[in-house]
Amino acid sequence: MAMIWAGIDAGKTHHHCVAIDESGHRLLSRRVANDEPELLELLTDVLALGDEVAWGIDLADGGAALVITLLFNHAQPVHYISGRAIHRASESYRGEGKTDAKDAAVIADQARIRRDLHLLRADDDTVTDLKILTGRRTDLVADRTRTVNRLRAQLTGIFPALERALDLTNTGPLMLLTGYQTPASLRRTGKKRLETWLRNRKVLRADLLAETALEAAGRQHTSLPGEKLTAQMVHTLAQEVTALNQQIAELDKAIEARFREHRDFEVITSMPGQGVILGAEFLAATGGDMTAFGTADRLAGFGGVAPVPRDSGKISGNLRRPRRYNRRLQRVFYISALFSIRHCDESRRFYERKRAEGKRHIQAVLALARRRVNVLWALLRDERTYELVPPTAHAA
User: Fold this and answer.
1) pLDDT at 393
2) Which end of the chain, N or C, is less packed with Cβ atoms under 10 Å?
3) Backbone angles phi, psi at 155, to 5 degrees
4) Mean pLDDT in runs of 10 for the chain (396 residues)?
5) 78-80 and 52-57 beta bridge pairing
6) With DSSP H G I counted as helix, E B as strand and the rest as coil, what are the percentages for the chain, rounded to 5?
7) pTM of the model
8) CA nearest to 21, candidates 99, 109, 118
9) Helix or strand or coil: residue 209?
10) Residue 116: partners with Cβ closer than 8 Å, 6 or more residues away
């Protein structure tokens, strides 16, 4: 049986494919448009070269989504190799130049000689939707952070006392800034009218917010240059942040509704600190199929919470943080560990023990996250929810 290895250097508009045989001899090299008819023609031509084909690709989504789906639909095995791994492997091949054809040839050859490449699998519809929803949420949160930072900068330029006094991540202060941005306007309004204005807009604890704003206004009686125009910008930015908050809240509802349809919803959310959003992001980052990783250790390594050795010569036992891992999954593990310290006694005791051993805060949290990966792995494997005291096995 003739075995063929095909490497695809994926792009947005075009891909380049190189197919090689077991000796590394190039059988095909072709640039194709990211279009279904051309991709199907390429698939037919590659399959005609041998009895069995193993595919390698440097993207797992985005511009490569169409070609990967077509390969899945034709029952073709697709291995993923990262762009960084391709770049490093290219240094061992002849020539310093970089072309799409060379990268595709490197991908094909790496798929031929390596046995540790990740095999891509088709996600179920729920996981696919969660990837889209959580990706959109990440973008909106980043937009909100940038807008809040701009709002703080503008407000500091005309009213620094109010910027220090307000938490601009909350709804009440944002509502206040849509109507009042300068010390003079607040003083003219007065506490009673300001409190009524806030209450009419359903701001919680309007009396306390009005008192805080008037106190800040009483500490500044100087009108700063550009105050009028800057006040208009503060008003606009406050509205933008409010709109982003509403979009994120609506998206959170959609994520929860879709996440609840997944078979592992109850298992994942039963973990202390692993709420709906973090649980959905966990599925989006891993695909929800734990058999793709094989062991909890590989999942921890993929999530960047397992230290890797850095030994040389007589030096042994030297560990460091990994450099190649899924940043999104590491964030899920790290943030959920932080939340569990607040809400779970077992997690807090483990964290405090690591701190007593001399570990820094981040090191202790990562150690807790690593331990929690083992727990989550076992829960998903056994299809049971988290219990503080695990069930004991009964003797036969």
Assistant:
1) 55
2) C
3) -65, -35
4) 89 94 92 95 93 91 90 92 85 82 92 86 86 95 96 95 93 95 94 94 93 94 92 96 96 96 93 93 89 85 79 65 80 94 92 93 92 93 82 53
5) parallel
6) 60, 10, 30
7) 0.83
8) 109
9) helix
10) none
For residue 134, give Cα distances in angstroms to 130, 246, 258, 336, 368.
6, 16, 11, 16, 25
β-bridge partners, 19: 6, 28
Q: Which residues pair with 28 in a beta bridge?
A: 19
Rounded to the nearest 10 degrees, the angle between the axes of helix 183-200 and helix 206-217 is: 180
Q: CA-to-CA distance for 152 and 237, rounded, in angstroms?
A: 10
- Token representation of residue 179: 């109507």
What angle is formed at CA 23 by the lines to CA 20 and CA 24, rounded to 5 degrees? Answer: 40
pLDDT at 74: 93
Q: Which residues pair with 57 in a beta bridge?
A: 8, 80
Amino acid at 331: R
| Strand order, beta sheet including 118-119 | 26-33, 14-20, 3-9, 52-57, 78-80, 118-119
pLDDT of the residue at 396: 44
Question: Coil, strand or helix: which one is 313?
Answer: coil
Alpha-carbon distances of 296 from 290, 293, 380, 381, rounded to whole Å: 9, 8, 11, 10
203 vs 24: CA distance, rounded Å: 69
281: helix, strand or coil? helix
Q: Closest Cα to residue 187, out of 148, 227, 217?
A: 217
Q: How far apart are CA 284 and CA 296, in angstroms?
A: 18
Helices then strands, each counted (H, E), the chain:
16, 8
Taking the C-alpha atoms of residue 127 and residue 119, their distance in angstroms, rounded to an integer, is 17
SS3 (DSSP) at 361: helix
User: CB neighbours (10 Å) of residue 80?
Assistant: 19
